[in-house]
Specification:
This protein is α+β, with helices and mostly antiparallel strands. The chain is globular, with a radius of gyration of 17 Å. It is built from 7 helices and 10 strands. Helix content is 31%, strand content 27%.
Length: 255
C-alpha cells in the first residue's frame, strides 16, 4: 500500500516548552505521537525517549517489524523512562502518553497508553479508534457524567495510564483492515481539546493531508492553543487494492 503523510508539532501559545514528540517513518508504515506529562519533571525527555526506542526498533527489524515487536518496544520504552527518572530525577517521575499507528499488509494496528488519540476518517465518517485512558472517560463509561460534562470537568487532565509512571505498563491494541481513501489522524490532546470532532472531520474530508494538517494547527492556535499540539495525518491509496476484502476486523484490546 502507498501512503501520504504529514507530521507537525507546536508548543502552542501558553506553554514555555514543547513536551510533545512525534515520529514519522512511512518507509516502515510506522507513525507515533507522545505527550510528555504536564507538571512532571522532564516530560519532553520522556516523550522523545519513546520516539527514540521506536525508531531504533524499526531500524533494527526493518522488513520483519510486527505488532508484537512494537508492543515489546513500548515495554522497553517504559523501562527506559523509568530508568531515566530513577537515575536523573531524584525520585521525581517523568511520564508520557503515546499512540502508535502501524500499517502492514493492508491492516492497520493501533497501540496506545494515555489520552493521545488515533482517529480514522472513512466514508466521510470520523471514528475514534483509541479509547482515552483518563479519569473522565472512565466516569463516562460508568455512566457518572455525560460526554458534554467531561469537556470542562475538573478532572479532565487526569490520565489513568502512561509510559514511565509504573514499572509495568499495559498497552491497548486494536487492528482492522485498511481501505483506499482512509485517513488516519494521530494527535495529542492539545488538538482534540481545542477542536471538536465534527470540525476535525470537516478538515480531513475537504483537504489533502498537507492542507488539512495545517488547517488543524491554525484552528488550534486561533482557539488559544493552551497546550502543546501535535498531529500526524496518514492517507492511504492503492490502485490495485481489493475493495471486496476491505472489511473491518472486530476491535479488541490486550496487554
Amino acid at each position: 500500500m502507498q501512503f501520504l503523510s504529514d507530521a507537525q508539532t507546536h508548543k502552542g501559545l501558553v506553554r514555555k516548552i514543547n513536551e510533545d514528540a512525534c515520529l514519522s517513518l512511512p518507509e516502515f508504515g510506522l507513525w507515533a505521537v507522545a505527550d510528555g506529562m504536564g507538571g512532571h519533571a522532564a516530560g519532553d525527555i520522556a516523550s522523545q525517549l519513546v520516539m527514540d526506542v521506536l525508531t531504533q526498533t524499526a531500524l533494527k527489524h526493518k522488513e520483519s517489524i510486527s505488532s508484537e515487536i512494537i508492543v515489546q518496544a513500548l515495554y522497553d520504552a517504559n523501562r527506559a523512562v523509568c530508568d531515566f527518572s530513577e537515575d536523573k530525577l531524584q525520585g521525581n517521575t517523568a511520564g508520557t502518553t503515546v499512540v502508535v499507528l502501524f500499517i502492514s499488509k493492508e491492516t492497520y494496528h493501533v497501540f496506545w497508553a494515555g489520552d493521545s488519540r488515533c482517529y480514522l476518517l472513512r466514508s466521510a465518517n470520523l471514528i475514534q479508534l483509541s479509547r482515552d485512558h483518563s479519569q473522565v472517560n472512565d466516569m463516562i463509561l460508568n455512566g457518572l457524567i455525560s460526554e458534554s460534562d467531561a469537556e470542562n470537568h475538573e478532572l479532565s487532565n487526569v490520565i489513568t495510564r502512561a509510559i514511565g509512571v509504573d514499572a509495568d505498563i499495559e498497552v491497548d491494541y486494536i487492528f482492522g483492515r485498511c481501505s483506499p481513501g482512509d485517513i488516519y489522524l494521530l494527535c495529542t490532546d492539545g488538538l482534540n481539546k481545542e477542536i471538536p470532532d465534527r470540525e476535525i472531520g470537516d478538515y480531513l474530508l475537504n483537504n489533502n493531508v498537507y492542507e488539512a494538517n495545517r488547517a488543524l494547527l491554525h484552528s488550534t492556535l486561533v482557539s488559544g492553543a493552551k497546550d502543546n499540539v501535535t498531529s500526524i495525518l496518514v492517507s492511504i491509496f492503492d490502485s490495485n487494492f481489493d475493495y471486496e476484502c476491505a472489511k473491518t476486523i472486530p476491535l479488541y484490546s490486550k496487554r
